[in-house]
């Protein structure tokens, strides 16, 4: 099973940017769909973005469309979440998760459903405040 480690979180002012990294080890992420989720204290975990093994398949939470971009780099075995124009409501712990997608059949529904993922990272904290 692949192991995941997130990094890139931190504290920024509204309107700022962060790039979150999800690095896989033990297996290539090329054959996995990877999702990004976030959870704020006292709130439910929600799917933010995701990308299939087929990179043409992506998902974005409506509130982050146009601000966040998910991508992957095979050479570094990393999936990225670039977050621009950050808002206070983006404050949360962000997690990446992976599910095997060997035949590249994952759908948008799969990407946003946390129950479908097999492996989770430890999370990275994002704080957006002035």
Number of helices: 1
Q: Output the radius of gyration.
A: 14 Å
Strand content: over 45%
For the terminal residues, how far apart are their CA atoms? 40 Å
List keywords for this structure.
single chain; mainly beta; 4-stranded antiparallel sheet; globular; 130 residues; 1 helix; 47% strand; 11 strands
Describe the protein.
The chain has 130 residues and is mainly β. Helix content is 4%, strand content 47%. Strands 2, 4, 5, 6, 9, 10 and 11 form a seven-stranded mixed sheet that branches. Strand 7 (68-73) and strand 8 form a beta hairpin. The longest helix has 5 residues, at 108-112. The mean pLDDT is 96.
Topology:
Elements: E1 3-7, E2 10-12, E3 18-25, E4 32-39, E5 46-51, E6 58-60, E7 68-73, E8 78-83, E9 92-100, H1 108-112, E10 119-120, E11 124-128
Parallel strand pairs: 2-11
Antiparallel strand pairs: 1-3, 3-8, 4-5, 4-9, 5-6, 7-8, 9-10, 9-11
Quick synopsis:
This protein is mainly beta and 130 residues long. It has one helix at 108-112; strands spanning 3-7, 10-12, 18-25, 32-39, 46-51, 58-60, 68-73, 78-83, 92-100, 119-120, 124-128. The chain is built from 1 helix and 11 strands, in the order E-E-E-E-E-E-E-E-E-H-E-E.
